[in-house]
Amino acid sequence: MSGYFGSYVVVVVLFLVGVAIFTGGLFVNRMLRPSRPTPEKLTTYECGVDPVGEGWAQSQIRYYVFTYLYVVFAVDAVFLFPWATVFAAPGYGMTTLVEMFVFLAFIALGILYAWRKRVLGWT
């Protein structure tokens, strides 16, 4: 198939082949596995502790704040690697340097905001 929609047909066919392989693997797994459900196997299991009480627990917000800060630094690290490769290319030096300082300024502003809100201290 050639033309504009020919590329889309190839992508759709490859997607369908991938879905068929995935569902086929799940189906073969379901057919080959042993199934012996017992009441002990059907109970909820969490880290070796027997389920007692309600299934709802409250988490503190500071853990989410540290998670968001980790994501910010992970995005920063992911952005640094392509920048380092483009920085060495001729003609891109000053442009990429300015872009990186703008990006780092946004990161620094976020860290300053988190520091001012006192979310960086572990209590």
UniProtKB/TrEMBL annotation:
TM segment ranges: 6-28, 63-84, 96-115
Keywords: Membrane, NAD, Quinone, Transmembrane, Transmembrane helix, Transport
Catalytic activity as recorded in UniProt: a quinone + NADH + 5 H(+)(in) = a quinol + NAD(+) + 4 H(+)(out)
Enzyme class: translocase
Function according to Swiss-Prot or TrEMBL: NDH-1 shuttles electrons from NADH, via FMN and iron-sulfur (Fe-S) centers, to quinones in the respiratory chain.
Protein family according to the UniProt entry: Belongs to the complex I subunit 3 family.
Descriptive protein name: NADH-quinone oxidoreductase subunit
